From TrEMBL, chain A:
Subcellular location: Cell membrane
Signal peptide boundaries: none
Species lineage: Bacteria, Bacillati, Actinomycetota, Actinomycetes, Kitasatosporales
TM annotation in the entry: 25-45, 81-101, 110-128, 134-154, 161-183, 210-233, 254-276, 323-342
Bilayer topology term: Multi-pass membrane protein
Keyword Transcription regulation carried by entry: no
Domain of life: Bacteria
Matching InterPro entries: ABC_BtuC-like, ABC_transptr_permease_BtuC
Keywords of the record: Cell membrane, Membrane, Transmembrane, Transmembrane helix, Transport
Name the UniProt record assigns to this protein: Iron chelate uptake ABC transporter family permease subunit
Family the entry assigns: Belongs to the binding-protein-dependent transport system permease family. FecCD subfamily.
């Protein structure tokens, strides 16, 4: 019997194994990866000592001269890798949260997790001065505490998206206040460092900033994509429908929230609470793939592309004056949010 | 019925599509796997116990008790319909039978074993439930939605077998949506959409299928269309169906076994011809009426008494 309308393609092995893929989603993901890599090469090539893209690539492949190699590998590459990883992490966890909450507003910035991570990190900066590992630890602790509180407050016979969003908005407001208070209590040097960090900045990132995030992602990304991705797709149809199909709904949701919170926290520790990437990346990816489902992989690739491009703009578009990347994502993302609300309103959904 | 796919390693409750009394029973597949399939219920079967039963069920949301001490049995190969006024606990009972609600007291037995102990996917291969409200994801095609019914038969490395493809095509044919495969679900009419959801539940290939108010929000012609479809699935494929229905006359016409509930109690169960009487309807719905023979089918037809 022929079957039309199946939008997925399948690879089958003679052994009876089969793997689904969505051609359009793969294409979008690949496009984003290419864009991200091109932007990365330009980002590495830019700065006080400009390098041509060809030279950057040669140096990356280990064929440049030692001075170039030092500039690329030690000074500029860590920043670029941080941007790519943070973007990827935020894109993925944005897609996870939006799917779990079933609401395009369900991104970690709005749910309060990002501010929770910031709160933990600020405490570490002020109490211990903060190295990367300590900062990561503080951010994770802050996000996990916030996440547990929000989950406990919003959880009642399953979790309803709107309740979670509303509780999250409340938590964000409280934490913003707490964070501002912490900054006013700090000395002037610490405070200005903290403010820069709070905007989301990639300046001066070294390999030790990359390490906690990279290690975390090696574990968390496969866990989300392979461990929960298919169950999450079923949960789109509602908890009952997913349960009837054999998804352990509550367990899956808890696992996803847990991994999502860790991803947000590690990203925030590496680059500060960069705003709006988690909100916009999944929505852009979904519109490009035109594929139902949480679009986890395309969102991840889209996040990486968005953040590296934003960083490139922040570094180069304003002449001598460099901006923290969070300013760019905030302006672009805020504009996008307004557009989203306006268009959803026209469509009668909000 | 199934292709002899040697690579097919997962156990499955086989389901014969021909009709024929007791041979319609299930047989379990390969049992040497990590999943414990519900046994085909040899012991229970010998004792004449139906596959799905509830014993001493007390059902509650938080502290609010909906129903207490329910004993219920779903006869095998029946089209069982649960009726009763709003908020009588009929949907709650269905949720308990499908393990979606954990009973505060009592237990639900599937093939003689407590349903609470079954692995999620194993349960979903034996017992399906079509919830009252499900959301079709934005921009999903009919075929893609029906294909999701195969989830409990799939795994990380077995995402779309030829078996899956065949069963999805068959399910779409059985519900008359085979021509709609590449249409978007959100552009279908209510009746078509409900048939698509039923096709998804069929693709799950469960011998037991529970439907929570499958005709709600449909106009009368589509209600009858869906009920005719259910009756056909029940008769031709021998599936055991359990549906919660609002309309007593629909229940009386289509059910082979009727469970009437009121205020969390089961007032009567049995064949509609025996159960549906004027006294019972008055007791359950609090509405005076006459019961006559349906001129089309000879089943009981409830005619509300005229205003005096």
């Amino acid at each position: 019997m022929s079957l039309t309308g199946i939008r997925t393609s399948v690879i089958r092995t003679p052994g009876g194994l089969s793997v689904n893929y969505r051609p359009r989603a793969l294409l979008v993901g690949a496009g984003c990866v290419v864009l991200a890599l091109v932007a990365a090469v330009f980002a590495i090539g830019s700065g006080e000592y400009p390098m041509a893209p060809g030279e950057v690539i040669r140096t990356l492949l280990g064929q440049g001269d030692p001075a170039d190699a030092f500039i690329v590998n030690e000074l500029r590459l860590p920043r670029t890798v941080t941007a790519l990883l943070v973007g990827a992490g935020l894109g993925l966890c944005g897609a996870v949260f939006q799917a779990v909450v079933r609401n395009p507003l369900g991104s970690p910035d709005i749910l309060g997790f990002t501010n929770g991570a910031a709160c933990g990190a600020l405490l570490v900066i002020f109490a211990a001065g903060g190295g990367s590992a300590l900062l990561a630890g503080g951010a994770v602790a802050g996000a996990v505490v916030t996440g547990s509180l929000i989950y406990a407050l919003a959880w009642k016979r399953g979790m309803h998206g709107y309740r979670l969003v509303l509780v999250g908005v409340g938590a964000t407001a409280i934490l913003t206040g707490v964070n501002s208070y912490l900054i006013t209590r700090a000395g002037i040097t610490e405070a200005s460092r903290a403010v820069l960090w709070m905007t989301g900045s990639l300046d001066g990132r070294g390999w030790d900033d990359v390490l906690p995030l990279a290690l975390g992602m090696v574990v968390l990304v496969p866990l989300v994509l392979l461990g929960c991705g298919r169950a999450l797709r079923m949960m789109e149809m509602g908890d009952d429908a997913a349960y009837a199909l054999g998804v352990r709904v509550e367990r899956t949701r808890l696992a996803l929230l847990g991994t999502g919170v860790l991803l947000v926290a590690l990203s925030a520790a590496a680059a500060g609470p960069v705003s709006f990437v988690a909100l916009t990346a999944p929505q852009l990816a979904r519109r490009l793939t035109r594929t139902p489902g949480p679009n986890l992989l395309p969102s991840l690739c889209m996040g990486a592309a968005l953040l590296i491009c934003a960083d490139l703009v922040a570094q180069r578009a304003f002449g001598e004056r460099q901006l923290p990347v969070g300013v760019i994502t905030g302006v672009v993302g805020g504009g996008y949010l307004v557009w989203l609300l306006a268009s959803e309103r026209r469509a009668g959904r909000i | 019925m199934r292709g002899p796919d040697a690579s097919y390693t997962q156990p499955e409750v086989l389901y014969a599509h021909n009709t024929g009394g007791d041979t319609m029973r299930t047989a379990t597949g390969d049992t040497a796997t990590d999943h414990k399939e519900p046994a085909s219920g040899d012991a229970a079967q010998a004792a004449g116990e139906p596959r799905l039963t509830g014993h001493g069920l007390t059902l509650a949301y938080d502290q609010r008790t909906i129903a207490a001490e329910l004993d219920v049995a779903v006869p095998d190969q029946s089209f069982t319909v649960v009726v009763g006024p709003n908020a009588c606990g009929k949907s709650t009972l269905l949720r308990a039978l499908s393990r979606m609600l954990k009973p505060a007291k009592g237990q639900v037995l599937l093939d003689g074993g407590d349903i609470a102990g079954l692995p999620a996917k194993a349960l979903a291969r034996t017992l399906g439930l079509l919830p009252q409200s499900s959301t079709a994801p934005d921009g999903i095609t009919v075929a893609d939605l029906v294909a999701r019914g195969r989830y409990p038969h799939q795994g990380l490395l077995r995402q779309w077998s030829r078996d899956d493809e065949r069963v999805v095509a068959e399910s779409m044919a059985a519900t008359g949506v085979e021509g709609l495969g590449d249409r978007f679900v959100d552009e279908l009419s209510g009746g078509q959409r409900q048939r698509v959801w039923i096709a998804m539940a069929l693709a799950q290939q469960t011998p037991l299928l529970l439907l929570d108010e499958p005709t709600t929000y449909l106009d009368i012609a589509h209600q009858i269309e869906i009920l005719d479809l259910c009756a056909r699935l029940h008769e031709e494929e021998g599936r055991t169906l359990v549906a919660v229905l609002h309309d007593l006359n629909h229940a009386a016409r289509y059910a082979t076994h009727l469970i009437a509930m009121r205020d969390g109690r089961i007032v009567a169960q049995g064949e509609p011809g025996e159960v549906v009487t004027a006294e019972l309807v008055e007791e359950v719905f609090g509405m005076p009426c006459r019961v006559i023979d349906d001129p089309e089918t000879g089943t009981p037809l409830v005619v509300p008494a005229a205003r005096r």
